[in-house]
Design a protein that fits this description.
Function: Essential for recycling GMP and indirectly, cGMP.
Organism: Oceanobacillus oncorhynchi
Number of strands: 9
Binding site for ATP: 13-20
Structural class: alpha/beta
GO molecular function: ATP binding; GMP kinase activity
Number of helices: 8
Strand order of the largest sheet: 2-7-1-8-9
GO cellular component, one term: cytosol
Length: 206
């Protein structure tokens, strides 16, 4: 019997494109997906559980793991590190479970370098005008910050060639259906199961 490995799926795209919304809706429908648990140096908040909400590490431990290549990507926000642990992703995939990572474009480029066998999905806004409306409608950012975000979004859109798939997020339900179709098709790719079939044939013929 073939034991299929899981796959790491990376959903990425410019700020304001709706990555979090698509991911939440997807997880309501796709119960077999495992959300990638991040590692952090920030203090644990009341009710949070190590290995469920985050993997909590000291600054020294985190920096040691960075040096050892044990993080697929990491970044620093407000004096704390956040990152994606390689070990958790690899162990989950070995169990035959898919791991889903929702991340900014810069982080996705780090993952691409450290884990190129992942499947990279770029979530694309219907238009830059629509992206601007979404950022403005958050009501949390100044005009200057909105313009900076749009400028950054243009730069990130130019990085689209590094991705395997592009999904336009015009309607959340439609975008989720497309991501689900990508997940199904990736599991049917010949090269993913050819090695395992060949191994079974060799074992039976030897």
């Amino acid at each position: 019997m073939i034991k299929e490995k899981g796959i790491l799926f990376i959903l990425s795209g410019p700020s304001g494109v709706g990555k979090g919304t698509v991911r939440k809706k997807l997880f309501e429908e796709e119960l077999d997906l495992q959300y990638s648990i991040s590692m952090t140096t920030r203090d644990r908040r009341t009710g949070e559980v190590d290995g469920v909400d985050y993997f909590y590490k000291s600054r020294e431990e985190f920096e040691k793991l960075v040096k050892e290549g044990e993080l697929l990507e990491y970044a620093q926000y407000v004096n704390n590190y956040y990152g994606t642990p390689r070990k958790y992703v690899e162990e989950t995939i070995e169990k035959g479970l898919d791991v889903f990572l929702e991340i900014e474009v810069q982080g996705a480029m780090q993952v691409k370098k450290n884990f190129p066998q992942g499947v990279f999905i770029f979530l694309f806004p219907p238009s830059l005008e629509e992206l601007k409306n979404r950022i403005v409608n958050r009501g949390t950012e100044s005009q200057e910050l909105v313009l900076n975000r749009l400028k950054e979004a243009r730069n990130e859109i130019e990085m689209m060639d590094a991705y395997d798939y592009v999904v336009v997020n015009d309607q959340v339900e439609t975008a989720v259906d497309k991501v689900k179709a990508i997940i199904k098709s990736e599991h049917l790719k010949r090269e993913r199961i050819a090695k395992q079939y060949k191994q079974i044939l060799e074992d039976e013929l030897s």
